[in-house]
Amino acid sequence: MSVMKGSSKYFMNAKNNADGLTLMSCIEDSSISAAFFDPQYRGILDKLKYCNEGKSRGKARSSLPQMDEDTIISFIRGINLVLKGSGHLFLWVDKFHLCQGVLDWFLDTELHLVDMIVWDKGKIGMGYRTRRRSEYLIIFQKSPVKAKGFWKDHTIPDVWEEKVAEKTHPHSKPVELQKRLIAAVTDEGDAVLDPAAGSFSVLTACRELGREFIGCDLVYGED
User: What are phi and psi of 64, to 5 degrees?
Assistant: First the structure.
């Protein structure tokens, strides 16, 4: 099943090299069953200012194209357009943006906050005071908001422990968690979107589940 408009140059189930906003403009409205979005947040780097950008462990992270809030809002509005009614968006956030609040990004959309999962990465990260060991996955659903018939797995815990087996990207995400979520909200053959795909872990999950993937990345995508 293709969700792309007829003139699109992008491919399903592939690592497209593209800007996510451009790719989403080529997707039919209301055709995507679920979406993942992991912005490359500029805000946390500005807040922490470790002075290690471009050096040692900060080099890979800081070299990625950064997203300001206006760009993130544009992505969210694009996702809102292409999601089916009652489809889900899984938004990755860090502690800084979680505490600052993200709901203003969703004004003028049909997306409603319905749940959140804490991902315990099993390793210690940055932090001036406490060291970051977790990331957060905020779950939104497009109107109409319904659980029955649209969320099939009721055994997923809201704290998920998973180490990333292979670090292929500065922000690699847990494949097994993403598989469980995709299986919970989609059926075989449904289309799943990731417009800032990074290591393409969502593509890996889709391949293992028999879902159709459409996504891209500016740095890690392939022509």
Answer: -75, 150
What is the widest separation between alpha-carbon atoms in the chain?
A: 52
d(CA 209, CA 191): 11
What's the start-to-end Cα distance of the chain, in Å? 21
Measured CA to CA, the distance from residue 20 to residue 195 in angstroms comes to: 4
Burial 26-60 (b: 16+ CB within 10 A, else e): bbeeebbbbbbbbbbbebbbeeeeeeeeeeeebee
Answer yes or no: is pLDDT of 190 > 60.
yes
Using DSSP's 3-state secondary structure scheme, residue 142 falls into strand
Q: Is the peptide bond before 65 cis (omega within 30 degrees of 0)?
A: no
**What does pTM read for this prediction?**
0.89
- Structure confidence at residue 41 (pLDDT): 80
Alpha-carbon distance of 167 to 25, in angstroms, equals 31
Distance CA 194, CA 20 (A): 8
